[in-house]
Amino acid sequence: MFVQKVMLYVSTAYMFCFLMTVNVGLSILHFISPSLAKKMILKMGEKTTMTQNPKFKYEDWGLTMMSSTFVKSACHHMWLSLGQEAFKGHPAPDSPVFTMKGEKSSISKFVKGASRFGDRFKQLVKDFSDVADFLVVYIAEAHSTDGWAFTNNIDINQHQSLEDRLSAAQILLREEPLCPVVVDDMSDATSIKYGALPERLYVLQAGKVVYKGTEGPWGYSPPEVRSFLQKMK
């Protein structure tokens, strides 16, 4: 695991440099040529599927890429990611979560074989429920109203208590994820151990991490998980 930890620190340092370069570069470009900056941001949005989300227009999220709140939020996510304990081929760390009834549980009690989700995730659940048990862990809000917020988004502040987190998770339940939903505890133990902010996909088998997706939003790839699960059928 030592090698994986070293690689984690190196990749995080690289991502920090990349983040600052993108933020400063886009800000300068926007000052010189707003239309060209918009074109580049939309190109980035294609990778994260933001441009395919009918709920948001470019004006709702595009300009936030040049904001200080974006930098602050991204840096916070990277800092927490340094506490990762989940690495491919190694034991899957257990961590406390709470059911939607507020009862304390743990990851290991839900995962026997195998979070943001949408139609692609739900299709995975439908197609592979015979080979995998799916679980959604609701963690700290990535785009809280009092943080890196998008306009025209759901109004959710950073969770100050477990009750806040459970209440926010009810909004997620309305999307009918087709699998159990639990919430991270207020120490963000699961999010930190799995490097989950802002979102990440995993496959666990026999107590080990057998698939570890790249950190979202750019690395969030249900099709990649689909290809992996097809090999398990």
UniProtKB/TrEMBL annotation:
GO terms for MF: thyroxine 5'-deiodinase activity
Segments passing through the bilayer: 6-32
GO BP annotations, alphabetical order: hormone biosynthetic process; regulation of neural retina development; thyroid hormone catabolic process
Catalytic activity: 3,3'-diiodo-L-thyronine sulfate + iodide + A + H(+) = 3,3',5'-triiodo-L-thyronine sulfate + AH2; 3,3'-diiodothyronamine + iodide + A + H(+) = 3,3',5'-triiodothyronamine + AH2; 3'-iodothyronamine + iodide + A + H(+) = 3',5'-diiodothyronamine + AH2; 3-iodothyronamine + iodide + A + H(+) = 3,3'-diiodothyronamine + AH2
Keyword Lipid metabolism part of the UniProt annotation: no
Keyword Phosphoprotein listed: no
Pfam families, A to Z: T4_deiodinase
Keyword annotations: Membrane, Oxidoreductase, Selenocysteine, Thyroid hormones biosynthesis, Transmembrane, Transmembrane helix
Similarity comment: family membership: Belongs to the iodothyronine deiodinase family.
Protein name: Iodothyronine deiodinase
Species for this entry: Stegastes partitus
Lineage of origin: Eukaryota, Metazoa, Chordata, Craniata, Vertebrata
